[in-house]
Amino acid sequence: MELDPSCEIKEECGIFGIFAKEGTEAAPSIYYGLCALQHRGQESCGIAVSDTTGPKGNMSSHKDLGLVNEVFKEETLHSLHGNLGIGHVRYSTTGGNSASNAQPLVLNYVKGTLALAHNGNLVNTEELRREFEENGAIFHTTTDSEVIAYCVARERVHSTSVEEAIKKTAAKIRGAYGLVIASPRKLVGVRDPLGLKPLCIGKREDAYVIASESCALSAVDAEFIRDVLPGEIVTITSEGIKSDTSLCQEKHAHCIFEYIYFARLDSHLDGISTYEARIRGGAALAAAYPVEADIVVGVPDSGLAAAKGYSEASGIPFALAFHKNSYVGRTFIKPTQKERESAVRVKLNVIEPVVRGKRIVLVDDSIVRGTTIANLIHMLKKAGALSVHVRVASPPFLHPCYFGTDVPSNDQLIACSHNLEEIRDSIGADSLGYMKIEDLPSMVGDLPLCCACFDGNYPMNIQ
């Protein structure tokens, strides 16, 4: 994955919800769950909690710009009391990066309080927002998440339960979404009918948990139960867990980029191990683009598993060619191209004895503009590599994503304006091979996929 923030594919958001037994503080578990989901968004985060035995307006929250361990200090966590709560880590795909757009969103309305956290992107946001504004709604953020929250609140006024209001809302919104919603006495999880966004359920002795990825369940010592079905609405109360599958449908389209890049290596999504999917992706690259080489190396961190898969399938030894500096801050300032190139060298440095005199296969998960991969190739050759053969564990990006993957505009995508040979020449590689679109299913078996950012085949009407 490209390391220059000006041109990389951005992470999505991560959501976490927990309903614990009475007297248990939910906030610490949400904190650890969000830390496990930090890879999905680093711009802002937040937690909202409620005491199910207290008065119905007692929801408290805290959110701000920054990483989880920056926003939440010990005294802040200790001020959030309640056994029911939700949390969110955010990268802004709709709406700018400002504190007002941080989540969870907490609404006070005629039926009480409601908190909502959202991963994904709607395709009919403008239509819904315009309808609500024409009927007097005032929005405080620029996110589609507030449109969802407002719709739930409006429907709740005319519904017998919050679940009914959520079901009516789910029938109106179109796009990709994983939701956790907290009312004063209930935790609700919702997944879009296509299954574009992941969502799973876990349980530990004193609690039920809903999270974007299974790695967050492990972080709070919860046992994975199952994935939320596409279109399913799951409600957790003091009486246990209930499921509504009336909005489920046969057509599914799971985001392939979860398996290529987004999800953590130790997560399972819809029965598929992320690690094993990337190993299989690397093997498919080896079969499609063999080359004579001495070692296979990956770009840390997201290219490493695919590199291992390429190595195993090709028989070429796997090696670690880069040292990654984990202590470089995310706010590292790079106002000029020269300084951006220096930033790459600060974050990654070549281990010279590994590469000197070697023919190298360099595996990365994607190429966006090509700036970073070109710098890495230059660094490898400067360190004595004889040749560098680049293998990319995804097809070229050619189309925008409308569902929450923040693919840069076409003028920033090198594959939109250059053919394969031009890209190879531009980045200085001795050879170049992208994952073939027809090989993507080999990563995930028979799981139905959305690959629209590669092939332009969107699973719904995006107008």
From TrEMBL:
Entry GO MF terms: 4 iron, 4 sulfur cluster binding; amidophosphoribosyltransferase activity; magnesium ion binding
Record: residues binding [4Fe-4S] cluster: C255, C401, C450, C453
Pfam family, one: Pribosyltran
Cofactor(s) required for function per UniProt: Mg(2+); [4Fe-4S] cluster
Binding site for Mg(2+): S302, D364, D365
SUPFAM superfamilies: N-terminal nucleophile aminohydrolases (Ntn hydrolases), PRTase-like
Cofactor details (free text): Binds 1 Mg(2+) ion per subunit.
Reaction equation(s) it catalyzes: 5-phospho-beta-D-ribosylamine + L-glutamate + diphosphate = 5-phospho-alpha-D-ribose 1-diphosphate + L-glutamine + H2O
Organism domain of life: Bacteria
Listed InterPro entries: GATase_2_dom (IPR017932), Ntn_hydrolases_N (IPR029055), PRTase-like (IPR029057), PRTase_dom (IPR000836), PurF (IPR005854), PurF_N (IPR035584)
Transmembrane segments: none
Active site: residue positions: C13 (nucleophile)
Enzyme class: transferase
Statement: the UniProt record of this protein carries the keyword Chaperone: no
CDD domains for the chain: GPATase_N, PRTases_typeI
Residues covered by the Glutamine amidotransferase type-2 domain: 13-239
Family the UniProt entry places it in: In the C-terminal section; belongs to the purine/pyrimidine phosphoribosyltransferase family.
Protein name, entry field: Amidophosphoribosyltransferase
